[in-house]
Amino acid sequence: MPVCDMVLDAEVKTADSLHCSLVTAIKRGFTLETWVSGSREQVASETFVRRHTTFDSVAEFCAACPSETDTIGGIQQLSADDRDAFIARTTDFETWQAMKEGAAMEDLLSLQNI
Questions:
Q1: How far apart are CA 109 and CA 111, in angstroms?
Q2: In 3-state terms, what secondary structure has residue 68?
Q3: How many C-beta atoms lie closer than 10 Å to residue 13's C-beta?
Q4: How many domains does the chain have?
Q5: Other C-beta atoms lying within 10 Å of the C-beta of residue 44
Q6: 102 lies in a domain?
Q7: What DSSP designation does 31 have?
């Protein structure tokens, strides 16, 4: 079985990368609620951030957030009100939870492009 690397923005699809994408999507589908509520490192792909926020990258999104660290973990450490205010101001979503759910669902639906 191939080793799965998360390459969400890859232009070239190989049999191994398709297999890995499918396995990852199936696993996320079965554990979507756990993944959405517990994600500390990756919440959204670069493509998702460009499409649904005012930023061009995840790093830019994290840097703009009023947290002490420029990471997804830093965003999650904000108070819920401050985090949701930042999300509502800079994204297509009203809350952090809605953004994470949207990113997870878009990631799963991207399999239609395989």
A1: 5
A2: coil
A3: 12
A4: 1
A5: 24
A6: yes
A7: T
